Amino acid sequence: MAHSRLVNIWQAIQQVYMPCVAGLRSATAAPAGHGEEMNDSMLPESISACDVSLHLPDSLPSNLRSQLPSKLIAKYRKLRLAQAEDAMASMKKHLRKGATLFKHKKDHIAGTGVAANTRMQNAISRQDAKTRLDAAKYSSARKALLVLCPSGKWKKRLRVLRDADIRPPTSDGGPGEGRRKLTWIWRMIPASDDELQPLDGADEEDDNVEDGDDSDGENHGEGGSLTAEELEDLRVEWARSLARAERWEEELRLLKTEMVRSLRFLDFKSKEWIALISKRASLLPDIRAGLSGYAHKQACMFRRIARKFAAQWIQLFRVNERKLPHTWPLAYRTVVLASTQVKRRPERQNAYKRLREDAASNGEDSENEMEVDV
After folding, report:
1. What residues contact 304, with CB distance under 8 A and at least 6 apart?
2. Looking at the predicted structure, is the pLDDT value of residue 129 above 90?
3. Pairwise CA distance, residues 352 & 188, whole Å
4. What is the rounded CA–CA span in Å between residue 84 and residue 134?
5. What is the pLDDT of residues 258-269, one digit of tens each?
6. What's the rounded Cα separation, in Å, for the pair 240 and 253?
7. S-S: 3 plus which of 49, 85, 115, 125, CB 3.0-4.6 Å?
8. Mean pLDDT over all residues of the chain?
């Protein structure tokens, strides 16, 4: 009933300031089977107030819109522009609230119980619903401005809002965090007093103003039209991004250092096993020969591991066009990655074939065949 009463009040006001819509309203709202005009003070019970067309200036045909007073059109443009600005500000506020609630849930609520998680998830869902409602209001206001002021300067600021643009200014936690970029809604330039004035060379403007492309750099304001609260959020996020980038640089330096130390350690262990041979000179020759063979085997194993690691890491440096650290051991600077393909000996293959042929000629079951290492 409240909505119906508001619609009736609006239609009465329209009758005074927009008389040209009376015929349009009677044609669309007349009861089926009745040609008479419907009473403006009443809505038929079969029609919901939410389904009644309000016949706003931007929804009128061009021939009817031209009959409206110019002052009314100018005020309606300003109203729609303010609506778009307010919807954008409200949407960003709800995005920040939702991000804060999500972080609070992750840090303090997760794992505390089903009831607490459900309450927090419901609160986050309410913020998401408000965000979607603000986005719909913004898109509706922008659509009206495109009809009433298609070549205004507002198009440089109020761009097409896509689902990918509706993100908070905080971390999304995904891969590639070092290259994450804020969407254009957080980098809007301040509003000017001539937003509804035509653009210079509007007929020749490129399409990136319309589709929201940031390549022209027009939306890169120094602080933009952000409030103090938004600026504080961006400062915190910038500090986190800087710390994250510095941490990745430190991890890269530590990784190179660990590579060098691993190669040096493996080379040291190889030489250590060789040095142990001379410390057992007092043993019997046969025992000393066995110990020497085992020591050489261990030394060869460590050298082989070092060469394998060095070959893989050198290939990684080449792919990423990076130089080897100056502390890289000289013995492992030109190592080539050896093939790991298994090479079977021909004599073993031939022996396996002969055994198969003999088993087939004797009629033995395949389950009783001799297992041969090939």
Report:
1. none
2. yes
3. 76
4. 9
5. 999 999 999 999
6. 20
7. 49
8. 78
Give the side-chain half-sphere CA count within 13 A for 42.
Answer: 8
What is the sign of the dihedral through the CA atoms of 63, 65, 68 and 73? negative
Contact of 67 with 139, CB cutoff 8 Å: no
Q: So where are the chain's domains?
A: 2-55, 74-226, 248-347
Residue 88 CA to residue 78 CA, distance in Å, equals 15
DSSP-H helix ranges across 105-227: 114-148, 208-211
pTM above 0.70, yes or no: no
Residue 92 tokens, joined: 């960003």
Q: How many other β-carbons are positioned within 10 Å of the β-carbon of residue 57?
A: 20
Q: Which two tokens stand for residue 182?
A: 């804020």
User: What's the rounded Cα separation, in Å, for the pair 329 and 263?
Assistant: 7
CA distances from 283 to 288, 292, 293 (A): 6, 11, 14
pLDDT tens digits, residue range 11-23?
A: 888 888 888 877 7
CA gap 149, 118 in Å, rounded: 46
Beta carbons of 266 and 309 less than 8 angstroms apart: yes
Please tell me the distance from the alpha carbon of residue 252 to that of residue 325, in angstroms, as a whole number. 12
